[in-house]
Structures are given as C-alpha cells and as structure tokens.
Amino acid sequence: MDLLFFAAALAFLILIHELGHFLAAKALGIEIEEFGIGFPPRVMRLFEWRGTVFTLNLIPFGGFVRPKGEGDPSKPDALAQAPPLRRALVILAGPLMNLLVGGLAYLIIFGATGAPKNEAVLIWMVEPGSPAETAGLRPGDLIIAAADQPTRSVQDLQRVVQKWAGRPIPLTIRRGDQTLKVTVVPRAEPPPGQGPIGIRVVNYGWEPVPWPERLRLALRALFEHTLALIRLPWEMIQARLSPTPKPPPGEVMGFRGMYTSFRVAFAVDRAAPTPVPVYTLSLIASLSLSLAVLNLLPIPALDGSRLVLALGEWIFGRRLPWRVEFALMLVGFFVLLALMVLINVREWL
Predict the structure, then answer these.
(1) CATH architecture assigned to 116-207
(2) SS3 of the chain: helix, strand, coil, percent, to 5
(3) Could you read off the pLDDT of 270-314 as tens digits, one per residue?
(4) Which of 235, 269, 339, 347 is such that its CA lies 20 to 30 A from the CA of 258?
C-alpha cells in the first residue's frame, strides 16, 4: 500500500507540473495537441477538449503535454512560433505549479496544527527483539520524561540514554489519554543500525497560534526551503572541491531513496496523533519544490534551458536555428537519462 501511495504522489506532482504548462499555453492561445496522463505507449483516448486530446498511457509516472508543431515548428499556432515572452511564461508555469503545491502543503500543515513546539519525543518504530519491545513500548507512544528529566526533544532523550547505558531507565510515556511508567535497559553495544533502546523517534509538539501567524509560518517555510534548494547545487560542489573533507549538505536520491523517505513519513504519520499527515505532507512539499528548482536549472532538456533560450531571443532579437536547439535538447535528454539510471543503480549497489 505504501508503494501505491508513493507512486500516486510522484505521478501527481509530475502531472501538476505538466498541467501548469497546459493551462498557460491555453491562456496564451498556444495550441496543445495532446495532454497525456502517464507516459506512452498509449492505452486509450479519453476525450477531446478545445482541440486537445486527453489520453491515458501505460507508464503511470506523471504525464506530458505535446504542443502543436513539435517536430515541425513551422506550423502556425505552434509553441515554437510564439513570441519569446509567451514561450517563457508557458515554460515557467510548470515549475510555478510545483511551487504552488509546495506552498499549499505547508499551509495545510500549519493551518491544521499551528506552530511547532517541542514538548515530547514520538516513537514511530520499535525494533523487534529490542529492549523497547521488551519494556512494552509501542509506535505512537510519547516519551515525556526519562529518569525524571523532561524529554522535550530527541537530544534530551539521547543525553539521558548515554548516561544510563546498561542500567534501567524509568520512562514516563503518554499513550492516548493514559500516562504510564515503564523501565527500559539501554544496550551498551546495540546491533548495527539500531540505538541502545531500539526505537526510532522524532520531536513532537504543536501549539495553537492565530491564523495570520500560521500563514506567516507557511510562507516562511516555503521561502526558506526553496532558497535552500537553490543553494544546494553550489554547496554540494563546494563540499566536493574543499581541501578538507566536508559532509555534503544534501544528497541526490533515486526512486529507492524517495520511496524509503515516504515509507518513513507514512510510518511517523500513522504513529503521530496529528490532524493531518504532517510528515507525508512535508515530504510532498519537499519533492514538489525540488521538481520546481531542478527544472529551472539551465541544463538542456529541462525547462531552465528553454527559458534561457526564450529570454535570450527576447533580449538579443535573434534565435538559435531550430536544428541546433533540437540537437541540444536531444543530447541533454540522453545525458539526463543516463544520469537518472546511474543514480538509481547506485542506490542498489
């Protein structure tokens, strides 16, 4: 079921991107011959609306739009024949739709929950055979104190566990409406990939704030996350070129990495008593904003390169020959495809 949710979320974000291109083209009088749900081969023709054929295709990850004149830019009403500023607006509309989805996800999160406030530590996974399982801890339990010390953050809990390694720790947990006392003995040498207690935890807590403050928090999260993604490529290059080894500020994930992140988010949301699935929505916001920023990079075959060409034509009044543009996009497509294969294969090695 988690895999289906992940596939649906990824397909939705790609489809939203293409919908942005489609709506902008229609609004600016540029003909779109086909709006495909999924990728070819075609399964069936669904319907036709204002000259656009909507189709259902076999590969379910996302969709595409096929503007008039693709492969033959001499046709009237083709995207290639549109003035450069109109083309630029159509190109920008896809990433802007992803930005809108990211902002909407943050608005739902903060609108439903309020402002983050660390008040407890949420258990979202208990390792089988661990001291936590022996003590009766469950996913969804909130640890509010350890050794009679408040645990308002993961760091608070870690400090206590390190001091009490090998000795019984009294924990105070909240399970639904109940407050319970349990005792757990941290392992001095836990198995690889597990902590001393055998739980996976996140900070938990929200406090109600006025709606203007919730809106401000959503806009701030949108701005800061987008800015961080814009800086990320340069920061990753700096980390690689640095004479002293530095941990990279982020990583490029393939489908396996994204699916693993979604599984974690689903597990946390199933355990967390919040009005909306906060962690899943946060991940959807992150992925949507990543799609927006990635597509605006000036790399051939991405929206960013087409945007640079359109703006260059508008500024200088001249355009690259169509065959040169086509060759650049084709080469860029195969380079991106090879890079995608490399990233996904690396995750399995």
Answers:
(1) Roll (2.30)
(2) 50, 20, 25
(3) 888 788 999 999 999 999 999 999 999 888 888 998 899 888 889
(4) 235
